Amino acid sequence: MNDRILGIVSLGLAIFLTVFGWNLHAPVSYEPVGPRAFPLLIALVIGLCGLWLIYKNEFTAQANPPGANGRIFLMVLVAMGYAFLFQWLGFVVATVLMTVLVGRLFRGAWIKCLMGGVGMGVLFFLLFDSALDVVLPTGILEGLL
After folding, report:
1. Please, what sign has the CA dihedral across residues 107, 102, 15, 29?
2. What is the DSSP letter of 62?
C-alpha cells in the first residue's frame, strides 16, 4: 500500500510541476526549447514513475535498517541547506559541503568524502563553466574563479 500512496503523491507532484511549468516563458527567446521544457520533462518522468508504482505487481519490501530513516531525513535537510546556501557560498563550496555531509551520513571516511567533494565541486564547475557555458555562482570564491 505504501507504494501506491507514493505513486499517488508522485502523480500530484507531476500535476503541480505541469501546471507550474506550462506558463513558464522567457522574456527573450535565446533557446529553441525555452525554460518550460525542463519542468515538463521532469513532470513526465515523475508521473510515469508514479503510474508504475500504482499499477505494478505486489511484492513485499524489507524495512529500512535501524537509523536509515533518520539519515534519509538528515539528507533531505542537507539538500535544502544546499539550495539555500548555493547562491551565497557559490557552487563549488556548497557542493563540497553537501557532498561531504551526505557522504558522512552514509558512513564514508572523512578523507574520501572530502576528496570526492572537492573533486566533484571543482570538476563540475569547470564542466559547466567552460564546456557547457553555464554561469554558476562563485559566491565566496569570486576572486579565485
Report:
1. negative
2. P
Grid cell digits, residue 5:
500512496
- C-alpha 55/C-alpha 4 separation (Å) is 8
Rounded to whole angstroms, the Cα distance separating 126 from 119 reads 11
Residue type, 61: A
In contact, 134 and 128? CB cutoff 8 Å: yes
Q: Are 100 and 91 in contact, with CB atoms under 8 Å apart?
A: no
Q: Which residue carries 535537510 as its cell?
A: 77
Q: Taking the model in full, what pTM does it have?
A: 0.61
Question: Is there a contact between 49 and 6 (Cβ–Cβ < 8 Å)?
Answer: no
Question: pLDDT tens per residue, the chain (145 residues)?
Answer: 677 888 899 999 999 989 888 887 767 666 666 677 788 889 999 999 999 988 886 666 677 788 888 888 999 999 999 989 988 999 999 999 999 999 999 889 999 999 999 999 999 999 888 888 888 888 888 877 6
Question: Per-domain residue ranges for the chain?
Answer: 2-55, 68-141
Contact partners, residue 130, CB within 8 Å, separation at least 6: none
User: Cα separation of 5 and 8, whole Å?
Assistant: 5
